[in-house]
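Fold this complex.
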Amino acid sequence: MSDLEQFRAETRAWLAENCPEEMRDGDITAENQCWGGRQWEFQSDAQKRWFEAALEKGYTVPTWPKEYGGAGLTADQAKILTEERDRINARKPLSNFGISMLGPALLAYGTHEQKLQHLGGIARGQIRWCQGYSEPGAGSDLASLKTKCEDKGDHWLINGQKIWTSNADISDWIFCLVRTDFDAPKHKGITFILIDMASEGISVKPIILISGHSPFCETFFDDVKVPKAYGEGNLSVVGEVNRGWDVAKNLLVHERGMLGTMSPLRGSKGPENLGGYAAEEIGLDLTGRLDDPALRQKIAQAEIDDWAYTLTVERMNDEANAGNGLGAKSSMLKYAASELTKKGSELRMDIGGTDAATIGPDGIEYDSLANTWLYNRAYSILGGTTEVQLNIISKRVLELPSA
Amino acid sequence: MSLILTEEQEMLQDAAHGFLDENAPVAAFREIRDSKNPDGFSRDLWHEMAAMGWAGIIVDEEFGGSGFGYVGAGVLAEQMGRNLTASPFFSTSVLGATAVQRYGTAKQKDQNLGAICDGTALFALAVDEGPRHRPEHIEFSAKSHGNGYILSGSKTFVADGHVANKLIIAARTSGEAHDPSGITLFLVDADAAAIERTHTPMIDSRNAANIKVDGLEVTGDDILGEVDGGYEALEGILSAGRAVLGAEMSGSSQRAFAITTDYLKEREQFGQKIGSFQGLQHRAAHLATEIEMTKSAVLKSLQLLDDDFESASATCSMAKAKSGMTAQLSTQEAIQMHGGIGVTDEYDVGLYFKRVHVAQQMFGDAGFHADRLAKRSGY
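Structure:
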């Protein structure tokens, strides 16, 4: 038996023993995933047991080095772990922005001390992170951000406002882009900084979306003092001062990668099997076809596109493991995934007709198709709009000329 | 299994790329077209391909083939799609070889596989009877007669039927015209007196034939696969064909797109390169994304044919649908983005546009496969 076969056998046995039945529903919606953080309360005993078992093994962050709380798995081993987890339909034991976004950036740019504190906190599910990038005046043109960060000798002084900070109201720390040089060209005066949300001067206000619900916040910084270091070698700034754009770019690629790997058409809330749902709601004609030929064609088309998309994620992962990195092609995945995600909930709303458009006495119910449908409009806006992704593909993949 | 090519398959790809660029570029295809070559391909080129082991690419080594499987066939087809290489590869080495190798008797294999591999036997599959692909709709009749059958009926769009030595004919031995059961496949000599072939040149400058059979006597030895159960074999042959056509269309999409992006980087209007216009950039970026999606779909279907042939049907349908839509978009955009020269005969993009159209029609277009997949999923 090869080493990898051995690893697969061990992983399968470990999962069989340690992943509780209740955690094998494959359900990884924002509502029932394990986010971690200071305010976190496990939703069930099974969720807690699954998290603790994974933590002990380093499997909350399997590819991170052992000294920072991971299991140090190779890419091949990590792929096997994912395959084996998917095989039994197991949830991820822990998932949050710390794992998917900040972690990879710290691994690339952090000091050993920064990694020890922050990666460890993420791996152990102790700290929940949010992202402070966008500002009211800096959306697609992120580099025009204006949140001011002044050097006050032993500390930084921050004033400004961030927007679209997902779950800022329940997060413990924020990784932020701030302006440290107002005179330099816009990309050259930005710094990437880590801030405790409990700091004095930070306030958070939820944003009500078209669904009536609110996963996003505005975050205000009013004379917030941030220490230069949280301990020996453990600076608050990641990378160099005024070079934060490099870190941010690296991290945006990970954000796109993360968004890209969600299963778009089926992964969204609501009935997974669109065709089956449609057959149930609408009925079949005498030839056994959905009694709405135009809708049927749209569903079948979307299923073909969704299938090709998920295979492309698999292929690009395999290529990356073989040494051909994804690079700017991650924008293709982000683009395709967000358009398919919207398509899936559009189709569910079309299938549901006026039933799906009916709301409860207190407005749009949280677990309704309508809420997902409305929320999903944001997919092609957040993390870089569809148009920004297409710009990136044009310039960096196709190398088309600039205007 | 990883969704990437193995080292061996990559080497085959490199070899095919080099050989076809040198020996069968688009200019060679154009020359065949303009010289009104009655075969529609170069027999010399075909013999060279056979000598390199391409004719027997999916045939097992014990029968003289190269044993590269369907991924190997797809790798070659993709490169042929890039160069619009015309050859009997698809009809003979994919359809014919699949039919004989998977469904033939020991005797049929002995008699035919060697001749496929050395390039001497040319095959054609006669399935459709009307202008749209409907493989379960078979009226072509095979009436029981003594120990054998008498074949009568007509077939349309038999690709390479004009040059084939052997025909695989889907005929009805029982049941109604729309019934998938009751179909039987026959492997017959194409030059039998009872077979009348009418050469039908196609818009893509490839060639096919309409076939009329009037009382051809055959024996039980000429049956390929099961009596009345031929639909299963037909499905298998068509699945292989769909995946490989998908690979060819993927190659054509990639090349037409590459020609187009080169043009976007060089053509100037309003004092700047037209590739700097966002209106074109976003369409190009969308197309680039679709091309990546198509590559994955095609490779998956080819791998599945090698890995678990019987289960590959739906996957091959998806790959055919996806690659067909992408190839149409790619070649439509190629013409549009070239502007006026895009609709001239002198520029190659129109040749891709025409070839892709016929490949889309062959063995079911995207709508056909979407319908099949929906039905299979119960809606």
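The first helix of chain B runs from residue 7 to 23.
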